[in-house]
Specification:
6 strands; 2 domains; alpha/beta; Ribosomal_uL4-like; 6-stranded mixed β-sheet; Ribosomal_uL4_dom_sf
């Protein structure tokens, strides 16, 4: 699959690159994508939720009314979950939501996500660039030139470029990452992928291992 290479001004450079078939041309494995995204979201959960159960409620332990003769159900403790202020039945407890996922599955998920975006024509390749200084306006101008200002974009760079990262961090619906840090969630969460030529080579090297 051949795609045109654009510069940061949205102009056709006259160059073309071939997206490797072993990454962008496969049939996307949707289940692998699901598992990797599920693991990513699970790892974001702190798991610090906690509700008090009846043994943890600080109330009197006296019997609140006599056992018989009231015409109502018997009640032995104000801590009972049936009373306001009582303990919670089966309430949440602190737990770890993370789970293991094999490296090969994670790699397949990233390849599948890239393939899905490429097959939907949502991948643009950019000539390697940088900004002279951090300016949000420069990043917005680049997105406008690429007709991606109103879309959720993910810019993938070969390495961290401080000026580009700082320029894009305040732009709504825009994210900047690197080839080594990009996740399946990032790929699927974006409407348009913007990949620099050097980042494309890095991705190919990483995912073909």
């Amino acid at each position: 699959m051949e795609v045109v290479v654009y510069n940061s001004k949205g102009e056709d450079t006259g160059k073309k690159v071939t997206l490797p078939e072993e990454i962008f041309g496969i049939e996307p494995n949707t289940h692998a994508i699901y598992l990797d995204v599920k693991q990513y979201l699970a790892n974001q959960r702190q798991g610090t939720h906690k509700a008090k159960e009846r043994a943890e409620i600080n109330h009197s332990t006296r019997k609140i009314k006599k056992q018989k003769g009231t015409g109502g159900a018997r009640a032995g403790s104000i801590k009972s979950p049936v009373f306001v202020g009582g303990g919670r039945i089966f309430g949440p407890r602190p737990r770890d939501y993370s789970f293991k996922l094999n490296k090969k599955v994670k790699s397949l998920a990233r390849i599948s996500a890239l393939a899905a975006k490429a097959q939907a024509n949502n991948v643009s390749v950019l000539e390697d660039f940088t900004f002279e200084a951090p300016r949000t306006k420069s990043y917005i101008e680049m997105l406008n030139a690429l007709s991606a200002a109103d879309r959720k974009t993910l810019l993938i760079l070969p390495d961290v470029d401080k000026n580009v990262v700082l320029s894009g961090r305040n732009v709504p619906k825009a994210k900047v990452t690197t080839a080594t840090q990009v996740t399946t969630y990032d790929l699927m969460n974006a409407d348009q992928l913007l990949i620099s030529t050097e980042a494309l080579n890095r991705l190919q090297t990483l995912l073909e291992k």
